């Protein structure tokens, strides 16, 4: 039996929302909207989701699940995506599946991969894959400290897609685990105690 899924990701500069039909292993992207703007996650996610639903010709009441990229990524970006996914899931009474955003990129490429995204502050988030399966990471490091980086071939930037997010869900038969953001480093903001210690 096929089901309609809303897939969203805000772990990278791309603000992605798409509607996907899943029937077993068959995945069909009905509509997807992507805005690449690292500072517009909060402003663009809901319009992208509503637009993708309209483009697909379906309503929120037709959704059977939500999939969201849980990072690694920036604190605010992840919170926007995860809070939006949780709100859709709660309001509609449908499950919300969290996936590693790097996995969603890798699963669409296949082969031996090193997936790297910008972590800001001269660092990158990275994970290594073999045939779409992660075997190392995710982690954060300076680019020179990423294992295997010297062997990697640079490719044009890729971001998580609606199809990749849905394919990255490991188990559709069990209830999803609670959403947990993949924060791999401390936030830029300092607590009062940290400021006082300086």
From TrEMBL:
Keywords: Transferase. GO terms for molecular function: transferase activity. It holds the Pfam family TsaD. One of its GO terms (cellular component) is cytosol. Residues 37-141 form the Gcp-like domain. It comes from the Bacteria. Transmembrane segments: none annotated. GO terms for biological process: tRNA threonylcarbamoyladenosine modification. InterPro entries: ATPase_NBD, Gcp-like_dom, T6A_TsaB. SUPFAM superfamilies: Actin-like ATPase domain. PANTHER family: TRNA N6-ADENOSINE THREONYLCARBAMOYLTRANSFERASE, TRNA THREONYLCARBAMOYLADENOSINE BIOSYNTHESIS PROTEIN TSAB. This is tRNA (Adenosine(37)-N6)-threonylcarbamoyltransferase complex dimerization subunit type 1 TsaB. It comes from Mycolicibacterium gadium (Mycobacterium gadium).
């Amino acid at each position: 039996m096929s089901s309609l899924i809303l897939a969203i990701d805000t772990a990278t500069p791309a603000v992605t929302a798409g509607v996907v039909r899943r029937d077993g292993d068959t995945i069909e992207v009905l509509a997807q909207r992507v805005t690449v703007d690292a500072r517009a996650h909060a402003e663009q996610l809901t319009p992208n989701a509503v637009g993708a639903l309209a483009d697909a010709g379906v309503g929120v009441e037709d959704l059977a699940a939500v999939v969201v990229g849980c990072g690694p990524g920036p604190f605010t970006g992840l919170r926007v995506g995860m809070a939006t996914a949780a709100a859709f899931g709660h309001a509609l009474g449908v499950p919300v599946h969290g996936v590693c955003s790097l996995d969603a990129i890798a699963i669409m490429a296949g082969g031996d991969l090193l997936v790297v995204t910008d972590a800001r502050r001269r660092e990158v988030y990275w994970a290594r894959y073999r045939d779409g399966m992660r075997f190392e990471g995710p982690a954060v490091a300076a680019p020179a400290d990423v294992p295997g980086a010297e062997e990697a071939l640079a490719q044009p930037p890729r971001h998580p897609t609606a199809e990749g997010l849905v394919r990255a869900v490991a188990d559709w038969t069990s209830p999803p685990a609670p959403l947990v953001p993949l924060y791999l480093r401390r936030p830029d903001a300092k607590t009062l105690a940290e400021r006082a210690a300086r």
